[in-house]
Design brief:
about 290 residues; alpha/beta; eight-stranded mixed β-sheet; two-stranded antiparallel sheet; globular
């Protein structure tokens, strides 16, 4: 799926793409978190979804309660696994971390899995936020569909956002990486209780026009990208979103980190992890501060 994203970028960038050597494939199997601690969470629904064909059967297991989940998810999270239902009737694996009315929804990259954001989600939950992560259709333990189904990502993000509100979130920060961030930007334009938008390495167009949507988003926004990501093409895409953002100039920030790492891989790269994580946590805290 990284090749499709590269093709999308080639279509968007005027020069430099055809001659550039594509970067290595994004890591679609981020390591399981190793530094996580337990937090309280509301119980998941008691009834698992009906059986369906999984996008990647070899990456699918079921919890003791019968909920499908990606094999990258440690068993200690099984009691927090739930199933979302999209507007077109698909069932998506999700993990509900933390509790309370300060909600955070984190969308993973196309070609990645639910564990993409899991370490960050747990740390945010430990700080007192109510965090939901999920798996897009066509990925991991989610339903098998016509791959990669980018045009339907907003249905999946919408189902996750609805569930986060149902579980008590009254104000919400939307975040995403790559195409997940593109979807987050479009949903942010429709969310009346938005407090902030977090974007990592996201194209301006992936599954829809995020530039037009983000112009209407006036809440604080944080963008991060590395200059060599996708042979240097991604930085221009993120700049488009940053420049189009409707947030006041003093309420939006573009962080350009060194290197060519993509999306949430920046949060696993020793060269960028600590700085980016601190910037994200400070941004989230500021968004939820009255």
């Amino acid at each position: 799926m990284h090749r499709l994203l590269l093709a999308l970028l080639c279509a968007l960038v005027v020069s430099g793409c055809s001659a550039a050597t594509p970067p290595p494939a994004p890591s679609s199997t981020p390591p399981a978190p190793t530094t996580l601690t337990s937090t309280t969470a509301s119980p998941p629904p008691a009834t698992p979804p009906p059986d369906y064909d999984h996008a990647v059967p070899e990456r699918t297991r079921k919890t003791a309660q019968g909920f499908p989940v990606n094999t990258c998810v440690p068993e200690k999270y099984d009691s927090r696994v739930l199933s979302l239902t999209t507007s077109d009737g698909l069932h998506l694996p999700a993990i509900d971390l933390g509790s309370g009315d300060r909600g955070i929804l984190l969308d993973h990259e196309s070609g990645y899995y639910i564990c993409s954001w899991l370490d960050t989600a747990e740390k945010l939950a430990a700080k007192g936020y109510h965090v939901l992560v999920f798996e897009y259709r066509g990925h991991g333990a989610a339903p098998k569909t016509a791959s990669p189904d980018l045009d339907d990502f907003d249905k999946d993000t919408g189902a996750a956002l609805t569930e986060l509100h149902r579980r008590g979130a009254k104000s919400v920060l939307l975040g995403g990486a790559s195409c997940g961030g593109s979807s987050a930007a479009r949903l942010a334009a429709q969310e009346p209780h938005l407090v902030g938008l977090l974007i990592l390495s996201s194209p301006s167009t992936c599954g829809g026009d995020s530039v037009a949507a983000i112009r209407t988003v006036t809440k604080p926004a944080f963008f991060a990208v590395e200059p060599d990501d996708y042979s240097g093409n991604m930085i221009g895409e993120v700049r488009k979103l940053y420049e189009a953002s409707g947030a006041p100039a003093d309420r939006k920030h573009l962080e350009i980190l060194p290197g060519g790492t993509h999306g949430t891989d920046m949060l696993r790269d020793p060269a960028t992890k600590d700085r980016l994580e601190k910037l994200i946590f400070d941004f989230v805290d500021a968004c939820f501060t009255p």
